[in-house]
Specification:
The complex is a heterodimer of chains A (474) and B (413).
Chain A: H1 2-12, H2 22-31, H3 39-52, H4 61-71, H5 84-100, E1 104-110, H6 116-134, E2 140-145, H7 154-163, H8 175-184, E3 193-198, H9 209-216, E4 225-231, H10 236-240, H11 243-246, E5 252-256, H12 261-273, H13 282-295, H14 299-333, H15 341-347, H16 355-366, H17 370-375, H18 379-391, E6 399-400, H19 401-414, H20 422-434, E7 438-440, E8 450-453, H21 457-464
Parallel strand pairs in A: 1-4, 1-5, 2-3, 3-4
Antiparallel strand pairs in A: 6-8, 7-8
Chain B: H1 2-18, H2 21-25, H3 33-47, E1 51-56, H4 63-77, E2 82-88, H5 95-109, H6 120-136, E3 140-146, H7 148-151, H8 157-165, E4 173-179, H9 190-195, E5 199-202, H10 208-219, H11 229-244, H12 246-256, H13 262-274, H14 285-295, H15 299-305, H16 309-323, H17 331-341, H18 349-361, E6 365-367, E7 382-384, H19 388-397, H20 403-412
Parallel strand pairs in B: 1-4, 1-5, 2-3, 3-4
Antiparallel strand pairs in B: 6-7
The chains are: A alpha/beta (474), B alpha/beta (413).
């Protein structure tokens, strides 16, 4: 009887469960109330579920899907953890502008993956809720991603379209001039306009006119726009807008620093708290947080690596299921071992993602494929790389193909193997250039092309040291 | 007559196998790239999540072939849930034509009317809207970006728009980049690289043992009623003997030591199978040896074989000048060497100049710079483009080469 039950369990695993509708996820997000976690309360909340939560069953397709969904990039959390200070700075700035009916500009900078755009979404929602509670007129919100603009000056066109102020205006005037005229005289409109310009550095031109004019719009006497620029460079305002300082309208800079180890760990635990089971070993999450914080501080990286670690566990379960199927067939053939089947299955239980799954996911993401590729190159291409390394070991930075061929022939003679012809040598260099291992210049004549190395000498040495043939050459 | 029929059928079967990726690359083991890629994409389809994968490997290692096989399998398993958009970096490397091509393929897939006059803005907004609609309809769009490193030049608007749209909750898409550059993800701009999930599949060339298994897989005939039983058994026995032969293995190693990609091996097989003897209907070792020597060509040696005696003499004089640490020379210095070396049977100067120009046209020698176009041919610096070993082999291979010239070359070497 347990054999039949085991077979049913194994058969149900490969069948794909019904797909969860993305529409439910869309509906769930605005309905959820944003909860502000205090620092003390967060500690207490984190301690209790870790003790109480049962272990999950990775064989259950539904639980597996929900665990992956919690860690996916597109699942926006209800509250942005570890960015409360930055959000409050931006929110207070916007509140002041709306309350006093005056224009202002703000610049938000930080590396990719540090939560800038997500925080801006939260600030918009909070600002609208606050204005509604205070009884102030609701500001218009305009979001522009500058990568979608064909021309840099299209941002003014979008600004005018956002204002819905096309009546009674001259059609022949430029959008920038229309905005400048509108902000130079008093109008009956009371609404402020919040403009969030994402990826601001796409507006940089040679004369920087567009970026300069955009920030200058906030200095007009009757201007009603609150401008928030988002980009990656910290010194964008200083480097590309030096005149704003002298004109006393330099934007306030809010810096989103790269996530630290504790912040990454906190964000991961916050996402996994919504899941009713414990999926990861604590050491595995710690390893992921430390590694990602040491390299880039990018939260997208951390989420992708955790997803890969779950897939490592999933692949292990699939492989174990195949082995278990084979073992069960052997067990059913000889009934003397019938009693040992439940014990055999218990040993194979998989419960959490451990540090070795996480280590494999990390190495899969961060390891360069150069060493594997060098080790699998054909023999003469390895000799070409070896001779090029010896050739460039001195002060030389590049050489022509004919010189490298002489070096290659020398290495072949010292190892007593016949060298390839010049045409094959040229083809091999082209293959290595395609893969990015060497750099091959352009020339009409083959032998006169310039060659320079693109990978480190240590990589070649490390890749080829295991082969006995190359121990004399290196 | 029937004897000839099944022999021709055998050749056609082997040829069609060599040209069929399905026969070569389908590998059901869980460690193969075929299974890994299929698992990644099918889990994206069934679990309604987005993914971006990069297929890296040298040219000829089967990246596109394996991907097409996986897409065919998935279109059979989920016929209504998958759309495939194909882009190529050589054709659509600028963002405007890439977005236009995506809009055209989306319109064709969903029976919509495609407008050629649509602008860049319209096409990009249309793509984002279609991704949203397909996500709500539980349909996955697979974007295949061939020559991915060519999309990474310029401002990378296409990559940013695709990967940014995949961050939203409603879209369901898989972006597959195919590239032969190992550092393709390093070419990405930093915000595109942040949005790209670093999943890489490495396509490495097969080892020598795997190449031999592939040979057996390709060249053995099936034992079924389409071929006479004794013919098929004898054919397979001969193929087995050829593959286990030591001389054949040396030839195969020599061939694969230069380039061990699958396409290179298939080219070798195609040359060998095309020369199969139709009288006997069996493959032999000579077929493979002739294929090897025909692929191993030396075009400069063939060029030297057709040179005249005067042209060979000029080349030998240039080689002598090169040995004297005189890398650059012109026609006058070559003539001076020619007069001092060859004391008899000399040709006139204008005849030598014509032979000199022939060598330039054959690209055995070339001008070192292009700036002196107005100068006469006699005064422009030239450079020899063949090595001593090549010249030596060329002299020996030339039937009409006088022995004195060969001795002169031997003494010089």
């Amino acid at each position: 009887m347990p054999v039949i039950a085991a077979k049913r369990t194994l058969r149900s695993h490969p069948s794909s469960p019904p797909r969860k509708s993305p529409r439910r996820c869309t509906a769930a997000t605005p309905n959820s109330t944003p909860t502000k976690n205090r620092l003390g309360g967060a500690d207490e909340n984190q301690a209790d579920p870790a003790a109480v939560k049962p272990k999950w069953n990775p064989k259950d397709g539904e639980q597996l899907k929900r665990a992956k969904m919690a860690l996916h990039l597109s699942t926006a959390p209800s509250s942005v953890v570890c960015r409360e200070e930055e959000q409050n700075m931006v929110l207070e700035f916007c509140k002041g502008c709306v309350e006093h009916q005056k224009a202002g500009s703000l610049y938000i900078c930080g590396c990719p993956g540090t939560g800038k755009s997500l925080s801006m979404e939260k600030v918009k929602d909070k600002l609208l809720n606050w204005a509604k509670e205070e009884g102030l007129p609701l500001p218009d919100v305009l979001s522009v991603n500058c990568t979608t603009l064909t021309n840099t000056s299209d941002i003014f066109t979008k600004q005018i379209l956002g204002l819905n102020q096309t009546q009674g205006k001259k059609v022949s005037a430029l959008p920038l001039q229309q905005l400048q005229n509108m902000y130079s005289q008093k109008s009956s409109v009371k609404n402020m306009t919040l403009i969030v310009a994402d990826e601001l550095d796409y507006l940089i031109t040679k004369d920087r006119a567009v970026l300069h004019d955009l920030f200058m719009l906030t200095t007009f006497p009757f201007s009603r726009c609150i401008l928030i620029g988002v980009a990656n460079a910290i010194d964008l305002a200083d480097r590309f807008l030096p005149r704003l300082t002298s004109l006393n309208c330099k934007p306030i800079v809010v810096n989103f620093r790269a996530y630290s180890k504790d912040q990454i760990l906190k964000i991961l635990e916050e996402r996994l708290n919504e899941f009713p089971y414990s999926v990861f070993q604590q050491q595995a999450l710690e390893l992921c947080a430390r590694k990602v914080a040491a390299t880039s501080g990018d939260m997208r990286n951390a989420l992708c690596i955790c997803g890969s670690a779950i897939e490592m566990l999933e692949a292990e379960i699939r492989e174990s299921a195949c082995n278990l199927n084979t073992s069960l067939e052997e067990i059913s053939s000889s009934r003397q071992n019938f009693a040992t089947a439940p014990d055999f299955m218990k040993k194979r239980e998989f419960d959490t993602v451990k540090t070795d799954h996480m280590a494999r996911a990390l190495s899969k993401t961060y390891r360069s494929p150069v060493v594997d590729t060098i080790q699998s190159l054909p023999h003469h291409q390895q000799i070409v790389l070896c001779s090029s390394m010896k050739h460039f070991r001195g002060a030389k930075k590049d050489a022509i193909l004919g010189e490298l061929y002489k070096s290659y022939v020398g290495v072949c003679k010292s190892c007593l193997i016949p060298p390839a012809g010049i045409l094959e040598f040229s083809n091999m260099c082209r293959v290595l250039n395609d893969q990015g291992l060497i750099k091959l210049g352009q020339s009409r004549e083959d032998k006169l092309r310039r060659v320079s190395p693109k990978i480190d000498e240590g990589d070649i040495t490390f890749a080829l040291q295991g082969i006995r043939f190359f121990q004399n050459c290196l | 007559m029937e004897q000839e029929n099944y022999k021709i059928k055998a050749v056609n079967l082997l040829r069609s196998r060599i040209c069929d990726p399905k026969f070569i690359f389908i590998n059901e083991s869980p460690e193969s790239n075929h299974s890994k890629l299929k698992f990644m994409i099918s889990s994206s389809v069934t679990e309604a999540c987005n993914n971006s994968i990069l297929l890296l490997g040298p040219r000829g290692s089967g990246k596109n072939a394996v991907l097409e096989l996986v897409i065919q399998d998935l279109l059979q398993e989920y016929p209504d849930s998958i759309s495939v958009m194909r882009l190529n970096g050589l054709l659509h490397s600028d963002d405007i034509s890439a977005f236009k091509e995506i809009a055209r393929q989306l319109c064709m897939e969903h029976q919509l009317l495609f407008s050629k006059a649509a602008s860049f803005d319209d096409n990009s907004q249309f793509m984002v809207a279609m991704l949203k609609e397909c996500g709500l309809a539980h349909k996955t769009i697979i974007f295949v970006l061939d020559e991915f490193d060519l999309f990474a030049q310029g401002k990378q608007r296409l990559l940013y728009s695709l990967l940014d749209a995949m961050q939203s909750i409603t879209s369901q898409a898989v972006v597959l980049g195919i590239s032969c550059r190992l550092d393709a993800d390093q070419l990405l701009e930093k915000r595109v690289r942040s949005r790209f999930s670093h999943r890489k599949l490495l396509f490495l060339p097969p080892s020598i043992e795997d190449s031999q298994k592939l040979l057996m897989h390709m060249l053995t005939l099936p034992i079924d009623p389409s071929f006479p039983q004794d013919y098929a058994v004898e054919f397979n026995r001969k193929v087995q003997n050829i593959i286990e032969d030591r001389g054949f293995l040396e030839t195969l190693n020599k061939y694969l030591n230069v380039d061990s990609s699958v396409k290179h091996l298939l080219r070798f097989l195609f040359c060998a199978v095309s020369r199969m003897e139709l009288q006997t209907g069996f493959l032999s070792r000579e077929n493979f040896e002739i294929a090897f020597s025909s692929i191993q060509r030396q075009p400069k040696l063939e060029c030297l074989r057709n040179c005249s005696i005067l042209e060979l003499q000029i080349l030998v004089c240039m080689k002598r000048l090169e040995v004297k640490e005189q890398n650059l020379c012109n026609f006058n210095s070559v003539m001076k060497e020619y007069k001092s070396t060859l004391t008899s049977e000399r040709y006139a100067r204008h005849v030598c100049l014509r032979a000199f120009e022939h060598l330039i046209h054959r690209e055995l020698i070339c001008f070192t710079d292009n700036r002196g176009q107005s100068l006469s041919v006699e005064f422009r610096p030239v450079k020899l483009l063949i090595s001593s070993a090549e010249l030596h082999q060329g002299l020996r291979a030339n039937n009409s080469c006088p022995p004195k010239l060969l001795n002169l070359m031997d003494r010089e070497g």
